Every structure is written in C-alpha cells, then in structure tokens.
Amino acid sequence: MTMWRLLVLTGLLASMMSTVAAEPGPPAPAPAATAPLPTQAFAGLPFVEGAQLSPDGKHLAGLFAVGGEQRIVMHEIGSDFRTAVMVKLPEETEVRWLRWVGNDNVIAGVTAMQMVTGDRWYISRLVAISRTTGRATKLLWELNGQNAADLLWIPTDGSTEILVAGQDSIYSSLEFWPAVYRVDVTTGRKRLETKAREGVSDWGADHLGHVRYGIHYRDETTKAALLYRPVAGDGFQWVDRARLRDEEELVVPFLFVPGGDNGFAVTDGEDGRSVVTEVDLVTGRHVRTVYAAKGASIERLALSVDGSKLLGVYTNDPARPVHWLDPVMAAHQQELDGRAPMAVVRIESYSQDLAKMLVRVSTPENPGLLFYYDTASGHLAKLAEMNEAIGSKRLSRAKMVQYKARDGLAIEGVLTLPRHRTAKALPFIVMPHGGPWAHDALDYDYWAQFLAERGYGVLQPNFRGSTGYGAAFERAGQGQLGFAMQDDVSDGVEWAVKEGIADPKRVCIVGGSYGGYAAMWGIAKDPDLYRCAISIAGVANLRREVNDFARSTRGRLYRGQWEKMTPDFAAVSPINAIVRIKAPLLLIHGRKDVTVDHVQSVKMHAAMTKAGKAVEFVSVPLADHYFSREADRMTLLTAMENFLQKYNPPDGKDNPSD
Question: Where is the signal peptide (predicted)?
C-alpha cells in the first residue's frame, strides 16, 4: 500500500455531495404548557453550528442540521433554502472549523483517525468548497505527512490563495517538519512560501500574508523557542524560550502592531487568569495590558475579518461574556442588549465592513434564536430557532452556585432545577464535565435540560483542575485526578443534600468523556453515595488513554501533563476497581468515536459482567464522540431515561426512603 493511501482521509471526496435540495420539515406540534417535552425535542440537532457570514455579509456558511445529520451548507441569506450548496460529512471525520475565502469559497478543516504503520494516527487536511458550483477541492492532499491543515492566513482582497503549513513525511527527516505553502482554493495548486526548518513545528503569519514567526519545539526536552522575523528583515532570530513541561510560558503573538516589532499575545495575568498584553517581540518587554477581565479568563478573541485589529474579547464572565474594544462594535452590542435585556446576546459573526451581523439570543433555559442584523437600517430579522421543537419556551432554570470542598477550596458549578417540581429533596444528578481541562458555563445544555425536564435536579461542578478560574486553580488538580478532583464532585452532592435540594438516597452520577471516567470512578471511590452511574464515551483505563496521542509531535509533553495529574494511572482507573462498585452502570459509546476509543467501554462492560456486577451497554453503530446525528442523540437520551427510570425513578416509587 502506498503512503498516499495510508494518509488520505479515505473516501472523503466520494462521500461529498454538491448542490442538494432540502426542504425543512414542519415544526413539531407544541405540547401543553404544563406537559413535559418529549425526548425528541431535546434530541434535535441545533439549526446551525459554527455559523459564519461571508465578508460581504450576504451569505451564510455553517454546519446545518439537515435530515437529522449535519451538513456543510452555504446559503444566500433571504433566498430559497432549496438553492443552498450542501456537503455531506464523511463518516469518522470531524469538521473542526469553517472559514470563508472571499465571498465564493469556504474551506473546512477536517480530522480523521486512521491506522498508519499499525497504530492509530490523527490525520488533518483541508477541503475547499465552491459556493457557485458546489465542487469540493482537496488542498495539500498530495503531501505525505500527518498534518496539512494549519491555516495561517486568508486574503481579503478577492484573491484565492491562502497560506497553509503542512508536513510532507511521517519519518524523521526535514520533510517531517512543516513547510508553508500558498494554495489556490479554486484549483488546489500550491507553491512553496517558506521552506521547512528542522525543529519548527508551527508557523505564523501577519494580516498581510507574510510569515513572521516559527515555533521551534523538541519533544525530548519539551523546550520551545520563538523565531521571529521583523517587518523589514529577511532572516529569523531567536526571541523567546520556554520549557513547557515546567509550565513556562512562550509568548506567541496573535496580532502584529503595524510599523514595528510589537505584537498582541494572550498571557497569564497577575491573578493567573489570561489577559491580552502588548509586548516587544524582539526584547520580550511588556508594553501594556490591552485587556484584563476582573475575575474572568479569556475564552476567545474577536478580530477584524482581515486580521489586522482586535475588536473584542470573549470571557467566561456570565454577566459580561464579551467586551468590545472597538467603539462601533460596543455600540452595536449596547443596542442589541437593550432589545433583549433578559437574555444573552452574542454577535456570532460579522461582515468585513461590520455592517451585517449574525446575532444569537439565548438563555441557559432556551437554546436560542438566530438573527440577521443590518446595522444601517437597524433591522433585526429572525433567521431560525436553534431548536424548532423547543422554540422560545423557557425550560428549567439554571444558575451558578458555589460551595466549599472538604479542604476549603471554593468550587463553582451550574445548578439546574426542574421547572415543574419544588426544589426540595429532588432525585438528583451530578454531571462532571469532560476534558478535564474545560469548564461548564451558564449556557443552554441539552443533557442538563433533558434531565431536569424529567424531574431531576442537575449539578455540573467545575472541580479543581477546570479551566476558566486561573492558573492556580488549574494546577490544584495536579496529582489529584481520582482524588481531590473526584472529591470536589462528591462534595457538590453533599452540598445539595445539606441545602435540602437533593434526596441523599436518590443520587446518580452522569458524564461524558472525562466526565464518563468520573462517573465510573465515582461509583468505585464512593460506592455508597451513588444509586447509579451513566458513562458516555468514558475512559475506563487511564493508562491506555494517556499513552495514546495518535503520534502527536508533542506526545511526550502531553503524557507529561497527564502524569502530573495522578501518581498512578492504574490505581485510579475504574477498570481496576470493579470489586468496589455496588451501583448499576450504564455504558453508552459510539463506534465512530475518534476521540475516546469505543474499546474503552467494551472492556469495562466485559469486566463488569465477568465480576457479576449490574451493567448495561448501548453501543451506537454510527455515533461519533459528540453524537452529532439526531438519531444517535435520540438513542442516547432514551437509554439514559430508561436506565434512570429503572434505577432512580424521578417519582421515587421504589425509593426505600419513601
């Protein structure tokens, strides 16, 4: 078999469809005001995810729900949806992002897991799709390396050549390190822009399309260094160094200040939370703090379409999720907030001249509505309900709560209380998030809302080690995976019991990915606390998981990060603690999951069965890690509901305490 056949995303282009007619189905009938919504209402896919306006503001691209599956769709706003260009996603492939190149082409970054030389590898590539013809063009697929989807720059002058970095070999040679190419998205033709340089694993460009820096990295030492090229210079120079395993910070610019060597970077502030700073890239001197959110961390940045200006900063502050530095955008946000004072209004995307915008209006109790905003006329046109079956209904109330862990550390979480029950002695679900380097926010969560609709109180704790609370809180998780990190979850249950919210004899633990691990480990570590557990795409054997980084160039660094989290993988792996488990366990896992291997649940199920433990396993043939098909979400939610009805019914009829 040739190396090309090993490395391509098999069948991707063949599985894509060009222009397809699609007629949205009729809305689901509205249930009675007091009746719980059916499971199907929560299983519905969002109308669109990752929505992006074209630079002229006339077209919309995103991952649309079509026929119960997600499609890449390009659609002219205001036109008949049947004329839209649609592209079917191939199986076992994840679309990581979409970006417009001019007004006529969209590029998609895709990732798949493939067997290469007897091992599993993540492979990344780019696909360009023409809005006018529906034709898909593979970009840099002739390269023989693992990754060829590192997008550095997109032109905004109407031209069609982008800058992309890609590897040309999987072996230890100069070609293993990525070179930078100019690639025409309409033809797929490429030309070399910057040669590969040994040890340089990443490249970066400014808003004019000039390659300005490279990141040199050696996994053997986990040392990284920044090579910088001044505006007027031709050569690169070393300007910053860091040992990443020691959590030293390499200052990498995301924006270059015109006319000099200053750049904007996201760094750790005095309180350990991320801030935007301006630095002199040659000397490393701190010039000024551009933006720091008090008590919050930066989630993402809002740049102008041409990448030349920082417009705003998104944070994890629920009271002010976005701060616009640009006065024009700030004025638009103020106007929009005034129109929906009881909701969260997010400007999701905008045209190059900032005159047209996509706006999402939502609450933690509702998936929201999508609007098209014409700033010149002030007209706010509704494009869609994000979930047609739910519409604008307000579901169960969610709020942020705080409690103390047993060692006194303050833990924050999201508490959702069922809308049709009194919040007293409720059947209760604690639902730790995935990651673990992530956090739950005060946003609409279809799992939490579904469980609340069935009568359960739901707590989503941001245990130590979660992101969003500063470097010290994140580091507090080191050495505590399976220990204090798990105690934080259990302490959330104890808090809810003391508050009178939860019935201590009717508590289950549910989670996905890392949360699935926490669900399994929870019933092993605290066997008398939980009545049942549900693990969705969970990790049963930590050693297998942390040793598998799909041949990443930073595999040693990532392993080291995991090794800091616990002194003994085997000692905190659920599969090795089955003898302590008393509660029934439900395992749900998609066979198309490329993030957590399906075999994790297969082996846990086999081990539980052999030990005579109560266990059920729902293997979903076509589901990926995110259950991005409506049918798979229906299977997931139905399995959860049936299992909970069996072992922790919301009416409590078989509860010994009743």
Answer: 1-21
Asked if the model's pLDDT at residue 589 lies above 90, the reply is yes
Going 523 to 525 to 527 to 531, the CA torsion angle's sign is: negative
Q: For 281-309, what is each residue's pLDDT tens digit?
A: 999 899 999 999 888 888 899 999 999 99
Token reading at 1: 């078999």
Angle 228-212-159 (CA atoms, 0-180°, nearest 5)?
175
Please name which of 538, 531, 349 lies closest in space to residue 432, comparing C-alpha atoms: 538
Contact 618, 632 (CB under 8 A): no
d(CA 149, CA 125): 5
d(CA 141, CA 136): 13
Percent of the residues in the chain that have a pLDDT greater than 70, as a whole number: 91
Single-letter amino acid, residue 423: A
In the chain the first and final C-alpha atoms are separated, in Å, by: 65
Provide the pLDDT confidence category of residue 172 given band limits of 50, 70 and 90.
confident
3-state secondary structure of 190: strand
Residue 183's nearest CA partner among 238, 229, 125, 230 is 125
Q: Which two tokens stand for residue 332?
A: 């638009």
Structure tokens belonging to residue 556:
């040693």
Q: Are 193 and 211 in contact (CB under 8 A)?
A: yes
- Non-local (6+) Cβ contacts of 209 within 8 A are 153, 155, 163
CA–CA separation, 300 and 274 (whole Å): 11
Q: In the CATH scheme, what is the code of domain 397-647?
A: 3.40.50.1820
CA dihedral (633, 638, 644, 647) in degrees, to 10, reads -130
The answer to whether the beta carbons of residues 400 and 386 sit under 8 Å apart is no
Whole-Å CA distances, 559 to 120, 207, 651: 16, 34, 45
DSSP state of 81: G
- Domain ranges (residues) in the chain: 397-647
The answer, yes or no, to whether residue 34 has pLDDT greater than 80, is no
Q: Which helix (H) or strand (E) holds 526?
A: none
The whole-number pLDDT of residue 509 equals 98
Angstrom distance (rounded) from CA 6 to CA 210: 33
Contact 9, 16 (CB under 8 A): no
CA distance 224 to 571: 32
Q: Longest C-alpha distance within the chain, in Å?
A: 78
The values of phi and psi at residue 264, to 5°, are -95, 140
